[in-house]
């Protein structure tokens, strides 16, 4: 256990108060720090320091502190840096915050006007170590200001993955708790965070370090970790296959920063910025290609589209657009881009093969957002003409590139999103403080949900929830079954863009006013991380790669297509398989062009399994737990590499299997073609 030393500074009879530049000390080693009562005007004095060489942290007790208008009492560290300033302050019998260090100096600055009582300090409390002792990291409660410390590492040599349980984590504004891996690389950052009794995400590796960084202002409870959970490799299968380089389509978040003219690339596994890509002027909208290989950025200031290669995080092409392009979306097959040009009141249609504009469709006044139906047949464009209380949504037929319907939505509609089954369109109406729900068959409004000044909007992969950013600096969660707001999550300042990860577990909210991104756990609706971005981030659109929309229909024995989202790469050597099919599955990977298995694993419904990553070129099969004679076997059909999957040594792969999603297809096959 940790030790707290408390020292009472006694007032010796006959001792004089400190006044002017005259100081009187006792024969004791301790100095009583006290002003005259009342203090003088035009006074500027630093008392002899309060020093305890053995201390790592200190705090002071005031019997009374009373200052007149604009007078200041300043606490300084050993080097004269400010710890805290009390101004126009009045209080009695209180402790200061904890401050890191073994020395505190007290300075009083007064003006030439009124005076007041001043102050008297009668106690000093010290801590003699950086943190409490124990098997797992724990901070002092409350922690100290100006604190920067890494606890002894949490190491489990047998583990391949780890996660931590917090009994409580409470941080003051701008203070950070950072989890690091064995090499000191960031796994996640908790900032301005307050939560109890929760688990972190799973992190690859056998070591986690905990680091606390605090500023010089207020403090809070801190944290306590009481449990560690690990995963070990359940299976280890060796392969003797020639390795082949692989390409990555990991789920990264691409955040457009309008004030710094660039895009921040966030790894959604550990919530860190891994790259910053310079683009055009005032980037606003963003869309990721379905295969994750390209990102398209609408530059509102330079009237063009930047094309980013996700493998290199560099701009490979720039496409001219209309005036002030804002919203942007990619067709489900990845062959077309739809760009909304707010100042020219039209939509540019771009061929992704040639990067040429092939059509221009006239929309309504000041079009803003855009979304494509999952079947690729219709495009929905919000027309946010300011001053019009009944703005519209233009419905564009993608074959003819003509507007086939105009739906009256609400006042100044901004964001727009389509449900995965394509039956509903959700429109965020900033001007009328609500969200409109459009039936895509009739193009009629079927319901409205009241939300104050909604901006960005997106639908979860399973279609059960809609996430809406709004001017109240929070995220509203709508249940699509009854179109009611079921939760409200506080985020950063002036939230704009919003997107969901392919597995539906996390929502990313882009905060334009606070220049960061809030990461929300969808199970608990709690912010679990805050990631810094550039200046004025917006990311209006589908900015997370590998987005998957799953069918709402339950899995059954019919010969339906099953698809996967493959792969997600992080440093490591493990294969993590997630089963979202709705039934237990068996995954089998065979040698290329062979039915000879090199890897087998059973995954129960809604469960994960982690195994040693095989390397080389393999074929991929899964078997559903239906009767064997009813389409139980499927084989992956990749777009490239002759149907083979490439796995490279030195990476982690996460493969998530969905029922009827729009990832890579697995085709039903007869048992005669199944693995041996």
Explain this structure.
The chain has 676 residues and is mainly β. It has 4 domains: 4-127, Spermadhesin, CUB domain (Jelly Rolls, Sandwich); 158-231, no CATH class; 252-532, 7 Propeller (Methylamine Dehydrogenase, Chain H), CATH 2.130.10.10; 562-673, Sandwich (Immunoglobulin-like), CATH 2.60.40. Helix content is 0%, strand content 51%. Strands 49, 50, 51, 52, 53, 54, 55, 56, 57, 58 and 59 form an 11-stranded mixed sheet that branches. Strands 1, 2, 5, 8, 9, 11 and 12 form a 7-stranded mixed sheet that branches. β29 and β30 (336-341) form a beta hairpin. The radius of gyration is 30 Å and the shape is globular. Residues 1-30, 234-250, 547-573, 626-631, 638-643 and 660-665 have low confidence and may be disordered. This is YNCE-like beta-propeller domain-containing protein. Keywords: Signal.
CATH superfamily of the largest domain: YVTN repeat-like/Quinoprotein amine dehydrogenase
Sheet with the most strands, sense and barrel status? 11 strands, mixed
Number of domains: 4
Sequence stretches where pLDDT stays below 50 over 5 or more residues: 1-30, 234-250, 547-573, 626-631, 638-643, 660-665
Keywords: Signal
Domain YNCE-like beta-propeller: 247-538
Protein name: YNCE-like beta-propeller domain-containing protein
Pfam families: YNCE
